[in-house]
C-alpha cells in the first residue's frame, strides 16, 4: 500500500509540476536589477503611489471621449470594473478597474489581482490620465500542501480542488513600495512592485495607442 501511495504521489507530482510550469510561462520573474530599475521610477504624490501621463491627440474632444470610454470597457471587462463619472462635454471619465497577472514567489505562484482608479481629463490637445488608489489581492499556492491534498483525495476517492491550498491576503501597494525601500521582504515586495509597474505602464501604452 505504501509503495502504491508513493507511486501515485510521484505521478501526481509530475503532473502538477507540469501544470505549474504552464502557469509560469506568462508569470513575471524579474531580476534584482530589473526590480531596482522599476522602483526607481515609481512615482509618488502626497506619499502615495500615483501614475500620471499626458497623452497627445488630434480630433474632436467628444469623439476622443467616446474612444476612451470604449477603450475602458474593452480593457477592463470584469463586472467589478465600473465607470463612475462619464461627462463627454467636460471630457471627464473616471472608473474603477482591475487587472490579473502572476509572478513567481519562491516555489509558489502568486496569482495577483491589482485594483486601481483610472481618471481621464480631456483637454484641448492632450489627455491627462492618472492611475491611483492602487491596492492588490494575492493568492499564493502552496505546492507541497497541494500535492498532499491531491494524494489524499485520490486515496479516499473524493474530489480535489487544485486551488484549495491557497493563502489569500490584501495589500496596499504604496506600503509595499516603502517596505521595499526600507529593505523589508525585499524579494516579495520587489516582485509585487515590478509587476505592478509593468502592468500600469501597459495601461497607459494601450490608451495612447487608441488615440493615434
Descriptive key words:
45% helix, single chain, disordered N terminus, two-stranded antiparallel sheet, alpha+beta, 8 strands, globular, six-stranded antiparallel β-sheet, 212 residues
Word description of this protein:
It is built from six helices and eight strands; from the N terminus they run ααβββαββββαβαα. Strands 3, 4, 5, 6, 7 and 8 form a six-stranded antiparallel beta sheet that branches. It has a two-stranded antiparallel ribbon with strand order 1-2. The radius of gyration is 21 Å and the shape is globular. α2 (32-40) packs across α6 (186-211), α3 (61-75) packs across α6 (186-211) and α5 (173-181) crosses α6 (186-211). It has helices at 2-24, 32-40, 61-75, 143-155, 173-181, 186-211, and strands at 44-45, 48-49, 51-56, 82-87, 92-105, 108-122, 126-141, 166-172. The chain is an alpha+beta fold and 212 residues long. A hairpin with a 2-residue loop joins β1 (44-45) and β2 (48-49).
How would you summarize what this structure contains?
This protein is an alpha+beta fold and 212 residues long. It is built from 6 helices and 8 strands; from the N terminus they run H-H-E-E-E-H-E-E-E-E-H-E-H-H. Strands 3, 4, 5, 6, 7 and 8 form a 6-stranded antiparallel β-sheet that branches.
